[in-house]
Amino acid sequence: MSESMGRDLAGGHLRTWRDGGGRVVGYACVLTPVEVLDAAGVLPFRVKALGCSKTDRADARLSRFNCGFCRSCLQLALEGAFDFLDGVIETNGCDQLRGMFENWQYVAPAPWFHYLKVPHVVTPESLDYLEHELRRLAAALERGFGAAVTDERLIEAIERRERIRASLGRLADLRERPAPAVTGSEALSEVIAGSALPPAVFQELLDEAIDRFERRPAPPAPARRLLLGGAAIDDVELVRDIESLGGAVVADTLCFGSRGVSLELSEGWRDAPVRALAERTLRGSTCPRMYDELPSRLELVLATAARARVDGVVLVHNKFCDVHGIDNALLRLELEKRGVPVLALEREYGAAADRGRLRTRTQAFLERIGGGR
Questions:
Q1: Which residues are CB-contacts of 362 (< 8 A; sequence separation ≥ 6)?
Q2: Within-domain flag for 107
Q3: φ, ψ of residue 346 in degrees (nearest 5)
Q4: Helices and strands (DSSP H and E) totals, the chain
Q5: For residue range 25-75, what is the model confidence (pLDDT) as tens digits?
Q6: Residue 117 lies inside a defined structural domain of this protein
Q7: Structural domain that includes position 123
């Protein structure tokens, strides 16, 4: 589905869910285990900043030296764009994200609010801590919305999400073909639309889209294949710009993208589903918020690049994003040591005036690695 179609479909199904008495809870961090919300009968809605064209109200509370994505999300919240939410989950993904949530709740508090604390290191103690936090989240959802999160309901929710992850894996396989059957912008549109859909609806629409992609005539093999990695990028137009210049985005490690798809559950997870979610969240995280996990993030990029046979890597972060800005610089150095061409892009989130500069730099990079138009 196109970006606009995805937005319209998600909005229509969201209205149907709300009209039927369904509750919706917003979250922003990919490390929020949505299965717990599913098990409580609540629709998880990932907070995005699509369509935000100004940040004047947000700038009065978060300075211009804060991440543009966080400021844009806050702007939409202050304008009432998220008033349909019945609750909000804040996480400690980064200080700027926390500042966005805290200002949002100070000015226009949601009817239900929960702070989910996710550790930044992987140790036996941090796993115990996160398991406790997930049980606190389940109890808070039960108090707020009346549905008990039992192990049986949680197992059903995890199995639904695992089926969706399997379909997203099929989508990734189509994108990584020698002649990709789906573009990077199409794949990102699917994921973004799914972050606002009931899981059963997302599964149906996703499988229908994959079937359409598989039936399309095979396109010519692209001149240059790229892996796109980095921060909270929900801007399909950015990917479309890269593709219009002759670069095929055949793989990604984006926060809005494949970052949450590759997480695997431990053996025997049905015996202790809460513990299994805690372990997958921490051990499988490739977010730079995890202090000691740079080697695993580098390994993921290298493995994905090799599997997708990419010619270069584009690492993107939003201006003033500390965690991804530093991480991308370290990844670039390590990748270049291994002979992988890298383009590091810092962008002003939502700024139309920035597109020309990004297109110029991308075109120069494609020409450097032997492709582009």
A1: 241, 242, 245, 247, 314, 343, 345
A2: yes
A3: -105, 130
A4: 14, 8
A5: 999 998 899 999 999 999 999 999 888 888 999 999 988 888 889 999 999
A6: yes
A7: 16-148
